[in-house]
Write a structure and sequence with these properties.
- One of its GO terms (biological process) is pyrimidine nucleotide biosynthetic process.
- Its cofactor is [2Fe-2S] cluster.
- By secondary structure, the chain is an alpha/beta fold.
- The protein has two domains: 88 residues, Translation factors (Elongation Factor Tu (Ef-tu), domain 3, Beta Barrel); 163 residues, Nucleotide-binding domain of ferredoxin-NADP reductase (FNR) module (Rossmann fold), CATH 3.40.50.80.
- It contains ten helices and 15 strands.
Amino acid sequence: MFKIINKINVTGDVYIIEVEAPRVAKSILPGQFVIIRADEKGERTPFPVCDFDTNKGTVSVVFKAIGSTAMELLKLEANDTIMNILGPIGQGSCIVSKDSDNLKNVLFVADDLGFARIYPELLWLNKKDIASDVIINFQSSEEIKFKEKIVEVSRELIEVKDDIIDELKKTLNKGVEYDLVIAMGSTEMMREVSLITKEHNIKTIVSLTTLILDGTGMCGACRITANGDVKFVCQDGPEFDAWTIDYEEVLRRQKFYSSFEAKEKYRRENDKKNEAAAGLEVE
């Protein structure tokens, strides 16, 4: 069992829980995710990681209050426990490679849950003295309780409530020479970002975590085409070169699994396969 250290209602129906999981916290890299099972009857559900602390031995995940696992987590408070947390899963972000040493200016573009998911990468770059600017689309007028953490590790935070793509165009024309753009959030937004950055010839990475269902690659639900090759988001990603993705295929898959009921049914059908998954570090 794993103790919940903290639970935060970030804004609206978005929550973050911090879980004590020292082995996962010690080995996880920015860009990777975990699978949580709330109790013995619960489903194994993938969650994006929005923070981890190797000293405290904790991992924080962000989620919306939709779906059975999320609703079970909402019933829990600090000092309550969850049954297990599995990870880290997926590949670390490209920023953790040796090539990142040559980065000077990075731009993040985020909407939806992406505003919290960018934090581990922002923190990583900040520790390496690499400047990061952030454009975030906050649809809610409520206070964003996670925002101060982003401000601490970024050079500039630009908040928009309208068209994030228009703001991206303005930012790219301000004269800063960005080496890399990282987009996290809705597929439609990431597709538009990739079109704009290609015009400016700025390498761009997108995160496709919204496609992940079972997190082991056995269900095939997160299969995509990147640069003409078949890839699995949960194993080969979740981050990919933005210019290589077949976004129409991604949108079709998202539509097929658009309801949380459909996703949960699919997970249940694959639970036994998940039990046989190997090579994953389980706490």
